[in-house]
UniProtKB/TrEMBL annotation:
Transmembrane spans: none
Protein name per its UniProtKB record: Fis family transcriptional regulator
GO annotation, biological process: regulation of DNA-templated transcription
PROSITE patterns cross-referenced by the UniProt entry: SIGMA54_INTERACT_1, SIGMA54_INTERACT_2, SIGMA54_INTERACT_3, SIGMA54_INTERACT_4
Length: 508
């Protein structure tokens, strides 16, 4: 029980923390840091640590450490029973040690190695359902005084709050994992309808069907939006793995820091936010196919790991040395010229050869213009049903424009044009102006007439940048590369030239 003389400031801090615990599960580390900071302040501590017990190896890890040597402490861990914190965890009991020199349980190594003079320690267990899951310890009182029973009682209250925050964070993480797993499962079942009758696409599909019966890696190349992912789906669906999962990974959409754990998973405690073990995409793809889109964007260190998976089907979760294996077929895709990337050492040659066992090129839409009407009808049906509009077809002028257009953004651009047109359409048939392609198709030097040089240059820049963005499916990084400019400069141009980022131009 807490002493009778209750300090209003302490209670206010507690209420504040309670509110945080009940309102925000998204950043457990920040919350635990807040709790530890308050506990340290209210017990007038000089330094403090929050240690978490890993139940698999019975080690205590310094999750958060405050004070002048805080960052140095975090490289250490303690065995259960080792040091004051280890004793507290093992015995599940709080402890005040006001003179560590006289206590045999004190483990002096850490203080000596970091050059911090520890005199007294107050340590309490954090408990979930009576089980100790970690320890909070406060080191030295700033005024040199001794820790008292009241400090211990307050710290126990804070330790309970911290335990609650950990329970919440773990349940939250568990639910998130479940959601991402279920999303993956839903994705697996959602395959697109493949549309196309041109000679070029038929020959591409015929190679894909031949590739499907083998288990070899496939590298699909082709411009952005040409349909590489759909070809990958076709391979999976025509393979003996069709009953297994089809796991998509857009390597360009993952930040470098996450890509490894996303692919191979991680174990609890591998990094700050890793509150739970998590399966990676390779594990999820077991028995099926993994589709690595934009493989050219994978950083070199992860390329080395991919090479190993391809060679031996073996990998480790981040933070673990236990080898795992997964029975997967790998299909990779890129719109980059990987030969160039190999030349400038941003892509491994050995990985390229391993992936490129069966190369497939998806032809650009302008090389198979006869597929345009089929695809256009297909998307028209799709979107008019989705938007509940009765549109039966295209006016002849609209179809002529679709056929004449070059489609730098390929099928994705066509799809977006039709979606936008269905939104705009006011007639039973889609009209030329609904497509909003007229300007692009009829662009000529006449649009520059009567303008100053500066205006004309800006107009040109605007169209050029817009087209390049479209062609690159809206991925600014790729557009900047093609334009030969820095990405930051591209963002500035987009702002200055007032280029609107419609769906297809949006960064993803
Ligand atoms: N033959 C096709 N039939 C029907 N829809 C298609 C076809 N080809 C592409 N699409 C559609 O066009 C869009 C772009 O296709 P996809 O994502 O497969 O292109 P991609 O080449 O993988 O592009 P990126 O290089 O940008 O990843 C998707 O919405 C897809 O459903």
């Amino acid at each position: 029980m807490l002493s009778q003389n209750i300090d209003a400031g302490k209670f206010e801090t507690l209420i504040e923390i309670n509110t945080l615990i009940n309102s925000d599960y998204s950043d457990p580390k920040a919350l635990l840091t807040r709790i530890l900071e308050s506990a340290t302040r209210l017990t007038a501590g000089e330094a403090s640590s929050l240690l978490l017990l890993n139940s698999e190896n019975n080690k205590l890890y310094f999750e958060i450490s405050l004070g002048s040597k805080g960052p140095d402490v975090q490289q250490f861990s303690l065995n259960l029973g080792e040091g004051i914190a280890g004793w507290v965890a093992q015995n599940n009991r709080s402890l005040i040690v006001n003179d560590v020199e006289k206590d045999k349980r004190f483990f002096a190594d850490i203080s000596e190695q970091i050059g911090f003079s520890t005199k007294s320690i107050l340590a309490v267990p954090m408990r979930i359902k009576e089980q100790c899951v970690g320890v909070i310890e406060i080191i030295n009182k700033t005024d040199g005084a001794l820790f008292e029973q009241e400090d211990l009682e307050w710290l126990e209250v804070f330790a309970n709050q911290a335990a609650l925050a950990i329970v919440n964070a773990r349940s939250f993480q568990k639910v998130q994992n479940e959601v991402s797993f279920l999303r993956g499962q839903i994705d697996e079942r959602q395959y697109s309808t493949f549309v196309g009758r041109s000679e070029a696409i038929r020959s591409c599909l015929s190679i894909a069907h031949k590739a499907a019966v083998t288990d070899s890696s496939v590298l699909i190349t082709g411009e952005s939006g040409a349909g590489k992912e759909l070809v990958a789906e076709q391979i999976h669906m025509n393979s003996h793995r069709r009953g297994g999962p089809f796991i998509r990974v857009n390597c360009a959409a993952l930040p470098e820091s996450l890509i490894e754990s996303e692919l191979f998973g991680h174990v609890k405690g591998a990094f700050t936010d890793a509150a739970q073990d998590r399966r990676g995409r390779f594990e999820l793809a077991d028995g099926g196919t993994i589709f690595l889109d934009e493989i050219g964007e994978v950083p070199l260190n992860v390329q080395a790991k991919l090479l190993r998976v391809i060679q031996s089907r073996v990998f480790e979760r981040v933070g673990s040395s236990e080898p795992m294996s997964s029975d997967v077929r790998i299909i990779a895709a890129t719109n980059r010229n990987l030969a160039k990337s190999i030349e400038n050492n941003s892509f491994r040659r050995d990985l390229y050869y391993r992936l490129n066992v069966l190369p497939i090129t998806v032809p650009a839409l302008r090389e198979r213009q006869e597929d345009v009407p089929l695809l256009a009808e297909h998307f028209l049906k799709l979107y008019s049903a989705e938007m509940n509009k009765k549109i039966t077809g295209f006016s002849s002028e609209a179809m002529e424009i679709l056929m004449r257009y070059e489609w730098p953004g390929n099928v994705r651009e066509l799809q977006n044009v039709i979606e936008r047109a269905v939104v705009l359409a006011g007639n039973e048939k889609l009209q030329a102006e609904d497509l909003m392609l007229m300007q692009d198709a009829t662009e000529s030097s006449s649009i520059y007439q009567g303008r100053t040089l500066k205006e004309a240059i800006n107009l040109f820049k605007r169209h050029f940048v817009t087209d390049t963005l479209k062609k690159n499916g809206g991925v600014q990084k790729h557009a900047a590369r093609e334009l030969g400019i820095q990405r930051t400069y591209l963002s500035r141009l987009i702002k200055e030239l007032n280029i609107s980022l419609t769906n297809e131009n949006e960064e993803y």
